[in-house]
Amino acid sequence: MGIHRLNHAVLFVSDLARSVAFYRDVLGFTVIPMTPDGFTGAAFLQAPGSTNDHDLGLFEMGAAAGPSAAGRSTVGLYHLAWEVDTLDELAATAQRLAAAGALAGSSDHGTTKSLYARDPDGLEFEVVWLVPADRLDPTALAARKRIGRLDLDRERQRYGGQTRGGVGISVPV
């Protein structure tokens, strides 16, 4: 099976309206009107610039649903990672996440520059920019073996704020 990319993810959430508002207002997702007639408690969203039918499905569990215990006492998904095109976009996303109180951290993995955040239910996700293949050097490759502090200003000076990430890695040349 040759996998080309993640088409969509589906999350169980406690409050559908709250989760839709978060993904729409903070991350720029658009609600796609594809919920079956007569079906309530679900929403489908598309990420900005995506060509997918939808990128995220949300299914409401209700206020009585407990928090996810994945990684603490049960197995389960740790996080999803969404890729952005530029470091400027990553920096703007960091500001929006911080303003929403959702930014949980950031890291420099050498070849990837990452933000970590939590949605209103505490489900973690990552927003990442990948160093393009033609900009990979021994320093970036060696840094994959550690988790460093992300300095977005330094990375924008090094690679350029508008340099398209992932080219030759996740994006065809």
Q: For the largest beta sheet, what order do the strands appear in spatially? A: 1-4-3-2
Proportion of residues in extended strands:
15-25%
By oligomeric state, this entry counts as: single chain
Q: pLDDT under 50 segments (min length 5)?
A: none
The main sheet comes to: 4 strands, mixed
Number of strands: 8
What integer value in Å does the Rg equal?
17 Å
Instruction: Tell me the helix content.
Output: 10-25%
- The H/E string reads EHEEEEHEEEHH
Q: What is the straight-line distance between the termini? A: 23 Å
Average pLDDT for all residues:
94
Question: Count of helices?
Answer: 4
Shape: globular
Structural class: alpha/beta
Fold and architecture overview:
This protein is an alpha/beta fold and 173 residues long. The protein is built from four helices and eight strands. The chain has a four-stranded mixed β-sheet, covered by helices on one side. A four-stranded mixed β-sheet has the order 5-8-7-6, covered by helices on one side. A hairpin with a 3-residue loop joins strand 6 and strand 7. Helix 2 runs antiparallel to helix 4. The longest helix is centred in the middle third of the chain and has 13 residues.
